[in-house]
């Protein structure tokens, strides 16, 4: 079955037999996603939006071996335990004080800090810093909502340069807020390396090692680093 959505033809896989054709026999031909216009420069270095080409495979392999590999997760088990203890202590303290617990905020903050410790060896916020943690949560929520909302630019590509709904401009501002945080972490780490500070052996160190190699300079430029960090943070 096919649908005509604006100027875009969409094929709907509506039977098990056709699903097998698309997902098993011809999966490589249909693996590329249609990239929303609103993603802008972010899609150029994002594993989530890149087509299944050598660059995508290299970035995906690097994430699998350096961030989600079993040995890496086992080595950081103590971080997960520490963050759970902090969450339990925070909730217990609020209970003793008779204060309400914003479950969504504290769960988001714990997940965000667990991920940021894995990537940067530092917390991006804290359970007690309500303003900053809510700011991160609002930015991430706004990005997800903007990416998931219908955009006339995707249905009528000829109108995309006009950005009639302003979605691309709105997302660019949201991405810029996250990128400012990521750039500060990267720049601080580079200055620390120049000053001879000891390695932290986290995901950022692994990425900078790859970027410093001759064959990694084109793979991991600053925009790609931002996209990699953004994909991981908004997955919280």
From TrEMBL:
UniProt-listed SUPFAM superfamilies: Cytochrome P450
Which InterPro entries does the entry mention? Cyt_P450, Cyt_P450_sf
* One MF annotation (Gene Ontology) recorded for this entry: iron ion binding
Q: Name one Pfam family in it.
A: p450
Q: Cross-referenced PANTHER family, in alphabetical order?
A: CYTOCHROME P450 FAMILY 1 (PTHR24299), CYTOCHROME P450 SUPERFAMILY PROTEIN (PTHR24299:SF59)
Q: What is this protein called?
A: Cytochrome P450
